[in-house]
């Protein structure tokens, strides 16, 4: 589902050049649940952003579900992200002025769905994460774990084949972190391919495979 070949990412300013990723080769198969680990600043989030087409590599090739994306236009990349990918962030990225269900509907606004279909899909996603009784609440009325479940519902509302999660349990206590990981495992069992960045060894051990990074390089 995700293939990276000889991927390199360099950040340049007028004064300095920083090699964030060096010669990354990864093949994530359909239905896998893969975790990415490494010390802070080693390139984990940069790698996830490249996998999610939110950033472009300086060198190398990317394939998403068999499609080589380097020649895609910005519009085509945005369409591919919206159709194929779901994103979960450590800091939730919910809009405080919108209700829970309106937050979950956001990815569907870029599709040709009717308002009725959007609402039904959002309700279905919230039911999957156990928040059907919080649809009319606002983010400020929720706990950290509930906010993350809303973020997961938003990620899956469009039924993406790939879910990319950046430290989804990082801001949560261990009990709530285990609940969130259990939801991700259920989504994986339902067919979703998942790549998760984590600092937690216990969480990583519950996934199918571990990719380690150190100073932007894969560690084997």
TrEMBL record:
<dbReference type="Pfam" id="PF00005">
    <property type="entry name" value="ABC_tran"/>
</dbReference>
<keyword id="KW-1278">Translocase</keyword>
<keyword id="KW-0547">Nucleotide-binding</keyword>
<dbReference type="GO" id="GO:0005524">
    <property type="term" value="F:ATP binding"/>
</dbReference>
<keyword id="KW-0067">ATP-binding</keyword>
<dbReference type="GO" id="GO:0016887">
    <property type="term" value="F:ATP hydrolysis activity"/>
</dbReference>
<keyword id="KW-0813">Transport</keyword>
<dbReference type="InterPro" id="IPR017911">
    <property type="entry name" value="MacB-like_ATP-bd"/>
</dbReference>
<comment type="similarity">
    <text>Belongs to the ABC transporter superfamily. Macrolide exporter (TC 3.A.1.122) family.</text>
</comment>
<dbReference type="InterPro" id="IPR003439">
    <property type="entry name" value="ABC_transporter-like_ATP-bd"/>
</dbReference>
<dbReference type="InterPro" id="IPR017871">
    <property type="entry name" value="ABC_transporter-like_CS"/>
</dbReference>
<protein>
    <submittedName>
        <fullName>Putative ABC transport system ATP-binding protein</fullName>
    </submittedName>
</protein>
<dbReference type="InterPro" id="IPR003593">
    <property type="entry name" value="AAA+_ATPase"/>
</dbReference>
<dbReference type="InterPro" id="IPR027417">
    <property type="entry name" value="P-loop_NTPase"/>
</dbReference>
<feature type="domain" description="ABC transporter">
    <location>
        <begin position="2"/>
        <end position="219"/>
    </location>
</feature>
<dbReference type="GO" id="GO:0022857">
    <property type="term" value="F:transmembrane transporter activity"/>
</dbReference>
<dbReference type="GO" id="GO:0098796">
    <property type="term" value="C:membrane protein complex"/>
</dbReference>
């Amino acid at each position: 589902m995700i293939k990276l070949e000889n991927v390199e990412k360099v950040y340049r300013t007028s004064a300095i050049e920083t090699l964030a990723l060096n010669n990354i080769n990864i093949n994530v198969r359909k239905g896998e649940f893969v975790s990415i680990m490494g010390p802070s600043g080693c390139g984990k989030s940069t790698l996830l952003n490249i996998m999610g087409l939110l950033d472009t590599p300086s060198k190398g090739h990317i394939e998403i579900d068999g499609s080589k994306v380097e020649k895609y236009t910005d519009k085509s990349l945005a369409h591919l992200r919206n159709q194929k990918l779901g994103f979960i962030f450590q800091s939730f990225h919910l809009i405080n002025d919108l209700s829970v269900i309106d937050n979950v509907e956001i990815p569907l606004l870029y599709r040709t769905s009717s308002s009725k279909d959007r609402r039904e899909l959002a309700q279905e996603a919230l039911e999957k994460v156990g928040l059907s009784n919080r649809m009319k609440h606002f983010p400020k009325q929720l706990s950290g774990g509930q906010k993350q479940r809303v973020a997961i519902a938003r990620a899956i509302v469009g039924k993406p084949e790939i879910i990319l999660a950046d430290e989804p349990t990082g801001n949560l206590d261990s009990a709530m972190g285990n609940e969130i990981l259990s939801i991700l495992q259920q989504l994986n069992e339902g067919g979703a391919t998942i790549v998760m960045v984590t600092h937690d060894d216990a969480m990583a051990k519950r996934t199918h495979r571990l990719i380690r990074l150190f100073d932007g390089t894969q560690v084997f």
